[in-house]
Give the backbone structure.
Amino acid sequence: MFLIIPMTWFVLNTWNFMAFGQEGVALDTVSPEAVSPEIPAEPTPKEAVVSQVAPPAETPTVNEDQPAEAAASEKKSTEEKKDEPPPFQVANPPPPLEQLRPNRKYAIFTLSYDSVPLGKIKFKLNWQEMYASVSHFIGLASGTKGFTDLQTGKTVTRPFYDGLTIHRINRGFVAQGGCPFGTGRGNHGHNLLKDEWHPDLKFNTAGVLALSKQMDANSKDIPNSAGSQFFITLAPQPDLNGQAAILGQIVKDDTESRQTLRKLEDIPVNFYSKPVKPLVIESVHIIEE
């Protein structure tokens, strides 16, 4: 009898624990009344409350697994890319016109043909109207703007145009020069210029100096592709208005320059409009008056 009662009590209590749980309430039949109303069933953790508040706009998101040096380098790289100008964009915009020096600037070309002096052509530069393009040309002509040396492949600063040739003459149209190869297929080897034009500047006479642009396979001008090459009109060319950056023009009463310009049309050329003997740009001097 003594042994039967304890064994019966042990079996009954074991069955009660398995069925109702430690607190004596069935595990799959919990009612809302069984939970104390003073204590939330699922209290919101403190971390969850903090994460619902948006961080300040100026606080950057930091990856804790990323080293501090790498994060700083990535941030700097992103800022540099943001500040980079688009392709062919002039990096330094011109200052306001009222801050420019009022002096007039001129470019004087000294030419020779077959080692015989041909004459000079003086262009009044449109410095204020075409600030970016004219500053680019002046830098190359005076030697203050770097270009790629064809012999060494390094950047050098010396007068770019001195010793180059006028490689093309189309009578009644233009004379073209400024190619370091003398073929019309070369350039100064650095960043090209964004297209620039001014509504008051026209190709309405002979003796207009302008920058040439590269051409595609269909002989169409490529936008934003002006570099070192230039052309000089030998007659009015209204079809070119708005198509190229006009650097300058011969002053109307400059007899010597116009005589030299007319001599260009007398230069003999081959089938490809190239002078049969070297038509050399001995120098391009920039002066102020």
Q: What stands out?
A: Helices lie at 4-20, 46-51, 68-83, 131-142, 255-264. Confidence is low (pLDDT under 50) at residues 1-6, 8-62, 80-94. Residues 105-288 form a domain with the Cyclophilin fold (CATH 2.40.100.10). The first strand starts at residue 105 and ends at 113.
